[in-house]
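Deliverable D2.4 — example input (structure tokens):
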């Protein structure tokens, strides 16, 4: 099953949205396999957002992500990356679909509450930047057989 990395960004933490966000992924049937608080540093941000390094908002993004710790999570499930991004909503929160996290709680394109990996390669990279191998847990979930069909559960 696929793993994806989610961050509750500093604005989400300040606004008390950690529980709400976890609740939404739990209700969906995703499995939590890692969770911790992390203080983002220049070096993590330079790696994490390397593709935004030349954008004019890069310093704003850096200041924002270093404002407070973030809550970092790893969620697992069948096609988890796409499933999580649907629940998260598009970058510009004020245009995000109602019912998504950004659509329900945000107005900004920068202070947009939450991050979610956008591809298997970025999920792997992001996981490696902030999690150690012993912080990711492989365990049986009794609900897997309810959430998935027999054919899907082994994937
Ligand atoms: P996300 O799409 O998760 O990853 C890149 C982040 O950069 C994005 O969320 C926003 O938090 C931030 N970002 C994108 N565009 C802007 C912008 N124009 N100004 C400031 N921050 C931005």
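Example output (designed residues):
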């Amino acid at each position: 099953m696929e793993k994806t990395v989610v961050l509750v960004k500093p604005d989400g933490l300040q606004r008390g949205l950690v529980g709400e966000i976890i609740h939404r992924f739990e209700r969906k049937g995703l499995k939590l396999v890692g969770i911790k608080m992390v203080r983002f540093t220049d070096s993590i941000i330079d790696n994490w957002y390397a593709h935004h390094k030349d954008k004019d908002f890069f310093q704003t993004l850096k200041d924002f992500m270093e404002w407070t710790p973030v809550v970092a999570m790893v969620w697992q499930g069948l096609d988890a990356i796409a499933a999580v991004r649907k629940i998260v909503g598009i970058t510009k929160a004020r245009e995000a679909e109602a019912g998504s996290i950004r659509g329900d709680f945000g107005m900004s394109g920068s202070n947009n509450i939450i991050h979610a990996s956008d591809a298997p390669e970025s999920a792997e990279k992001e996981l490696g930047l902030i999690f150690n191998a012993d912080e990711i847990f492989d365990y049986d979930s009794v609900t897997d057989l309810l959430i998935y069909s027999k054919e899907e559960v082994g994937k």
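The pocket of adenosine-3',5'-cyclic-monophosphate is lined by residues 52, 57, 60-61, 91, 109-110, 112, 115 (CB under 6 Å).
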